[in-house]
Amino acid sequence: MEEEKDLEGLIKALRDERDWKARAEAVEKLGEMRDARAVEPLIQALKDKDGEGKVREATIEALRAIGEPAVEPLIKALKDGDSETRGTAVETLGRIGSNRAVEPLTQALKDRDSNIRYRATQALGIIKDETAVGPLIQELKDKDSNVRKNAVWALGEIGDKKALEPLIATINDEDAEVQAEAIWALGWIGDERAVEPLILALRNQDSNVHKNAVKALEWMECEKVLEPLIHALKDQDSNVRAGAAEVLGFIRDDKAVEPLINALKDQDRSVRKNSVWALGEIRDERAVDPLTQALKDEDSDVRENAKRALRWVGD
Q1: Rounded to the nearest 10 degrees, what angle do helices 145-158 and 176-189 cross at?
Q2: What is the distance between the alpha carbons of residues 63 and 85, in angstroms, rounded to a whole number?
Q3: If 0-12 CB within 10 Å is exposed, 13-18 middle and 19+ buried, where does residue 131 land?
Q4: What is the pTM of this model?
């Protein structure tokens, strides 16, 4: 009986228009109670626009705590006329993580408000249901780059290889952040069909794209990337050669020793610097004499890397 009164009192407090802090506190306590009867009043609280969004944030967390009983009412809220209510409903469904929300969330990908589409891609990436792959692939063509970026992230999180070719194509997106996210996703999926496109991505002048390409190739299984990377040490683009040397250092396979020794004669300082570092990482004694010669390199960074590499090889 006492709990019943507490529930009614807290629901009543949600209507206190004078004090948003009191409303936020009531929301938090309702979340702790986890009573399904609080769901509808809490969904109304998603419309709360005071307290710099703190009431809404507390409401999202309270509904997440209640969980499954909140799913169907939240799905209904996806059709609310208020875009912020729709957005917070989308976010809450993602946090709850119920597969029942997947189909309604894929419908939210068609919302006229790009912020709703953005949040829907994120929610689907959190839930990780493979039935969302097709709709998310369609979002790779969204006019909003943030939506495309989040769709790429979600596809990477789901990890379904049906997304492989669309993600490879997205490496050429007009937005560098989308490109970088696509490369990250391809590395996460880890399919060997992405190796050559990822090596080509080493040519990209954007530092984040280049860095992600290195990291993605590092994540691949060694036998998938070793030969293509060794071959890439002879690419006409110095960015590719330098990136390939760096990845080979992370992989640490001794089959790369001789090709990396040859790369110490490269005209580009970055290629030589990365090759010296990579040989230090591999720690093969065949590299001692070439690294000793690299101590005379005209570039100070190459010489410094050679000193460190020789210490590593000697350990």
Answers
A1: 10
A2: 13
A3: middle
A4: 0.88
Distance CA 144, CA 276 (A): 42
Chain length of the chain: 315
State the amino acid at position 17 in one-letter form.
E
The CA distances from residue 252 to 130, 222, 255, 283, 307, in Å, are 35, 9, 9, 8, 19
Task: Give the C-alpha separation, 41 to 22, whole Å.
Answer: 15
- 20: Cα within 13 Å, side-chain hemisphere: 15
Residue 142 · residue 115 · CB < 8 Å: no
To which residue do tokens 């839930």 refer?
127
Q: Are 96 and 123 in contact (CB under 8 A)?
A: no
Q: Which of 133, 135, 198 is nearest to 172 (CA)?
A: 198
pLDDT digits (tens, 9 = 90+) for 254-296: 999 999 999 999 999 999 999 999 999 999 999 999 999 999 9
Confidence band of 1 (pLDDT split at 50, 70, 90) = very low
Q: Is the pLDDT of residue 49 over 80?
A: no
Report which residue type is found at 145.
S
Place of tokens 């609080």: 38
Within the chain, residue ranges assigned H as helices are 2-13, 20-33, 39-45, 54-66, 71-77, 83-96, 102-108, 114-127, 133-138, 145-158, 164-170, 176-189, 195-201, 207-219, 222-232, 238-251, 257-263, 269-282, 288-294, 300-314
Q: How far apart are CA 152 and CA 77, in angstroms?
A: 26
Rg (CA), the chain: 27
Per-residue pLDDT tens digits for 208-229: 999 999 999 999 877 889 999 9
Name, in order, each residue with C-beta under 8 angstroms of 52's C-beta and a sequence gap of 6 or more: none
Distance, in Å, from the CA atom of 270 to the CA atom of 299, rounded to the nearest integer, reads 10
Residues 93, 1: Cα–Cα separation, whole Å: 31
Exposed, middle or buried, 203 (CB in 10 Å: 0-12/13-18/19+)? Answer: middle
Digit-coded pLDDT (tens) for 105-135: 999 999 999 999 999 999 999 999 999 999 9
Phi/psi at 176 (5° precision):
-65, -35
